[in-house]
């Protein structure tokens, strides 16, 4: 990717719960100097931008404004959180097809203005829509990424930290595969203080029951359902996950994050977007890491891939 501009500008397409909260998270951290928030609902957009700007004096200086697709022209990163809601009686596939139509209208408007930016897809189902974005945009594969299992992995770390009574920053763990029902916990490489999780548990003296792993993973997998049941939507933690990805890109960190990107033969899987720990920098995804997984985890990853490929075939990709 050859940048023709020097900027740390971020455009966010979609000013709903996730888009607006992402803008708030970026503003709070001073991650970027300019945020353009874009939405077809201009009345709501104006309200979100005004509300955000009223807090500017309390945070690092950030220029936040109502944007248009023209703002994508000089943006380093374009974040897509836009999408349609599910109608009563509508199937998941029907909803997905309508969201694909939304993306068919959005993506060309972005790339006709800027083919050098990184497009970060957050709208669910994120892996399917990341793949669709890659195909519609015809951008280099490193420049199109999805938020993937960054949030799932954070949930995993949180629950392990609570169970093991150590800070979540000291838990190293990944959820891989789909951001969804077929996701896979990479237990074989999960560690605390450099010790495999099973060895750490053997030293902590808590006599963990054999089914604790299953309980923790099920709680990770069902977290979103629980939150949605309680408050209607998830947006705080996902906004922080997106902010972390944005930081890695803008700061050229070479951070390792389990973002969703195009698979190219990893564990025998190609031509589908899934999450594996990847090196993320100003280029987007520089390299996907192939982990020393167990055979059971590899089988789970392949099942995740085949499930998504079946859905892609159903919607015509």
What would your notes on this structure say?
With 317 residues, the protein is α/β, with parallel strands linked by helices. It has two domains: 10-146, Rossmann fold; 150-314, L-2-Hydroxyisocaproate Dehydrogenase, Chain A, domain 2 (Alpha-Beta Complex), CATH 3.90.110.10. Helix content is 42%, strand content 19%. It has ten helices and 16 strands. It has helices at residues 17-29, 42-53, 92-111, 126-137, 150-164, 197-204, 212-221, 223-231, 236-250, 295-314, and strands at 10-13, 34-38, 63-66, 77-80, 118-121, 144-146, 171-172, 175-176, 184-185, 191-192, 195-196, 255-257, 260-266, 269-275, 278-281, 284-288. The strands form five sheets. It has a six-stranded parallel β-sheet, sandwiched between helices. Strands 7-10-11 form a three-stranded antiparallel β-sheet. The chain has a three-stranded antiparallel β-sheet with strand order 12-15-16. The longest helix has 20 residues, at 92-111. The two termini are 26 Å apart. The relative contact order is 0.14.
Short description:
The chain is an alpha/beta fold.
